[in-house]
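Handout, page 2. Input:
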Amino acid sequence: MAEIIHQNQPVLAYGTKLEEATLVVILLHGRGSSAEAMAPLAQELHIEGIHYLIPQAAHNRWYPNSAFGPLASNEPDLSSALETIGLLVESIIAQGFSRQQIAFGGFSQGACLASEYVACNARKYAGLFVLTGALIGPPGTPRDYPGSFDGMPVFIGGSDIDPWVSHDLIVETVGIFERMDAAVDFRTYPGMAHTVNQDELEAVQSMLAEAVRQSAG
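Output:
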């Protein structure tokens, strides 16, 4: 069991009440941000039937150093963050949802964490959206993740000049998810700042709308 760092932090709930929802989205904030700061994104993406869970990271960051430095430099925080997501997933399943009714998403550090959790626990979830993020670890990290996504939809968007998340690492992440049988929608936005744009919002909303339709059916 990972050291307790993030596990006792609050979790913000937003959207359709859990007992009335058909889809649960775990949404992860970036470095220096907060669960409350992600509420506008949840509001922007909200569709009737979605219950958002937005966990808060201790110290407003999931791990202390770059996602792409030595893995040991981000421990024990990284393991605690991954376990926190796992505990949320378990609690959702305990309340009657299947994994195909759970989606994941995040921005920046939260996007890196979401993609790493999903890759390490490969199943056919409802979907994943990675807004300026990539799998965690330095270039050349072995990526022999077990399991398959069995056609799970994944949206990955990012800039070609982002100072925090290298475009090459995003491209590598796309390839790994495709190799694991995800249906990846990858979009590069030339010259975009470290932000989320309208095209990304529309793409994610479309993905979530389809997930709601399938989970309700």
